[in-house]
C-alpha cells in the first residue's frame, strides 16, 4: 500500500465528510490551545521574528479546524504586539497535508478567515496562506524558514504500514491477540518516522523556533493496553462480522493493517532526546471522551448508546473510509460496515465511558 496516495480524510461537506465529523479533533484543539499560545509568547519574548512570522500546520486535513488553530495563533501575536506597542509582523501560513488531501475545501474558506481576522483583531493583518502538499516525514520547507510548527492529531499516522513478519489475523491494527512481532514492527516504524519528522523540521525551523505536536497516545507502556488497541478493535470486529456473512473476504482483513501508532509518552520523549535537535519544554497528557458530544458534567446530559455509537462511528468513518476503500475495493458496503461499528461501539460505551489518551509535546529548536 502506498500510504501517501490513499491516506486522506473524506473530502467536501457531505454527511460523511471530515469537515462535518471532526468535532472530536476540535475539542482537542480547545484543550491544547493554551499550550500553543504560551509557546507563541515564548517566541515573542525572544523577538526572533520582528518583520515576519512563518508558521506551518502539519496535517491540516479538509475541515475548519486548521484555520481555527491558525486564527488563535495570529490572535495571540496580535495581542502581544498590542500590549507592547510593537508593529504586527507579516504572517506567512503554510497548510500541509498529503497531496491527495482536499485542500480546495480549506482554501475556499480563506475569504471568511481573513474577514474574521480583521474583525476580531480590529486591525489589518497582512496574512498570506498557502498549501504545501507533501509528507511531513520528509523536507517540505526551505532551511531556517519557519518560526512555529503546529500539528494536531496527525503524527499518530505513520508514513507506511509497518513490515510485519507475521500475519495479524482477524485485526486491522494492533490488538491484544496480535503476535508480539506486530507490536515490535509498529514501534520500530514510529521511531523511524518520528525521527525523520524531527530531523526534517530541525532543518526548517530557525534556532529558538517552536514546535507543538498533539497526538493520540497511551497511558501505560504496555502496547496491548486498551488505550492503544481498543480504538480500532470494534472496526475490526465489524469487518469480521461481515466476513462471517460472506460480505467481505477474511483474507482481505488479515492482509490489511492501518498505518497508525499510539505511543507511550516516554517513547515520544526518548525519540526527541535521541534525535537531539529539540529541547522539550512541556510534555503533557490529557483525556477526551470517544464521543465528542458526551458532556458528563452537564446535569441535563442523558446517555443514548445508539446516538453515542453513531457519533464515534461517524468520526472514524470520516478518517478511514478512503484507505478502507483502497484496500477492500468499491464493493465494501460502507453504510453497512459503520452501522455495525456504531452498534458495537454503543454497546461498549454503555458499559464503559472510554476516553482517548492524548499527548501534547512542545519543543524548542536548539
From TrEMBL:
Alphabetized InterPro entries for the sequence: MeTrfase_7, MeTrfase_capping, SAM-dependent_MTases_sf
Keyword Phosphoprotein part of the UniProt annotation: no
Domain of life: Eukaryota
Pfam families recorded: Methyltransf_7
GO biological process: methylation
Keywords assigned by UniProt, alphabetized: Magnesium, Metal-binding, Methyltransferase, Transferase
UniProt key word NADP: no
GO molecular function, one term: metal ion binding
Annotated stretches, region: Disordered: 1-21
Protein name: Salicylate carboxymethyltransferase-like
Species per Swiss-Prot/TrEMBL record: Punica granatum
Amino acid at each position: 500500500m502506498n500510504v501517501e496516495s490513499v491516506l486522506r480524510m473524506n473530502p467536501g461537506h457531505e454527511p460523511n465528510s471530515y469537515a462535518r465529523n471532526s468535532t472530536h479533533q476540535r475539542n482537542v484543539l480547545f484543550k491544547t490551545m493554551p499550550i500553543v499560545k504560551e509557546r507563541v509568547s515564548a517566541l515573542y519574548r525572544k523577538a526572533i521574528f520582528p518583520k515576519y512570522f512563518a508558521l506551518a500546520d502539519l496535517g491540516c486535513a479538509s475541515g475548519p479546524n486548521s484555520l481555527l488553530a491558525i486564527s488563535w495563533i495570529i490572535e495571540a501575536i496580535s495581542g502581544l504586539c498590542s500590549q507592547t506597542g510593537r508593529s504586527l509582523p507579516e504572517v506567512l501560513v503554510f497548510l500541509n497535508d498529503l497531496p491527495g488531501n482536499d485542500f480546495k475545501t480549506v482554501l475556499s474558506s480563506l475569504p471568511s478567515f481573513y474577514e474574521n481576522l480583521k474583525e476580531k483583531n480590529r486591525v489589518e493583518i497582512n496574512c498570506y496562506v498557502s498549501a504545501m502538499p507533501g509528507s511531513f516525514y520528509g523536507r517540505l520547507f526551505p532551511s531556517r524558514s519557519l518560526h512555529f510548527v503546529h500539528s494536531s492529531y496527525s503524527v499518530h499516522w505513520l508514513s507506511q504500514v509497518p513490515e510485519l513478519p507475521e500475519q495479524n489475523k482477524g485485526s486491522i491494527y494492533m490488538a491484544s491477540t496480535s503476535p508480539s512481532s506486530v507490536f515490535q514492527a509498529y514501534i520500530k516504524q514510529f521511531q523511524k518516522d518520528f525521527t525523520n519528522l524531527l530531523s526534517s523540521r530541525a532543518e526548517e525551523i530557525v534556532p529558538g523556533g517552536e514546535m507543538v505536536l498533539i497526538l493520540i497516545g497511551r497511558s501505560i507502556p504496555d502496547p496491548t493496553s486498551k488505550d492503544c488497541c481498543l480504538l480500532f478493535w470494534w472496526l475490526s470486529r465489524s469487518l469480521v462480522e461481515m466476513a462471517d456473512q460472506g460480505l467481505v473476504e477474511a483474507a482481505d482483513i488479515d492482509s490489511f493493517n492501518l498505518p497508525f501508532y499510539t505511543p507511550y509518552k516516554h517513547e515520544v520523549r526518548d525519540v526527541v532526546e535521541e534525535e537531539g535537535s529539540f529541547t522539550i519544554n512541556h510534555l503533557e497528557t490529557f483525556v477526551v471522551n470517544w464521543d465528542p458530544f458526551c458532556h458528563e458534567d452537564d446535569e441535563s446530559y442523558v446517555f443514548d448508546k445508539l446516538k453515542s455509537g453513531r457519533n464515534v462511528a461517524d468520526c472514524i468513518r470520516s478518517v478511514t473510509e478512503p484507505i478502507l476503500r483502497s484496500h477492500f475495493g468499491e464493493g465494501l458496503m460502507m453504510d453497512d460496515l459503520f452501522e455495525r461499528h456504531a452498534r458495537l461501539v454503543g454497546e461498549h460505551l454503555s458499559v464503559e465511558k472510554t476516553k482517548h489518551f492524548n499527548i501534547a509535546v512542545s519543543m524548542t529548536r536548539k
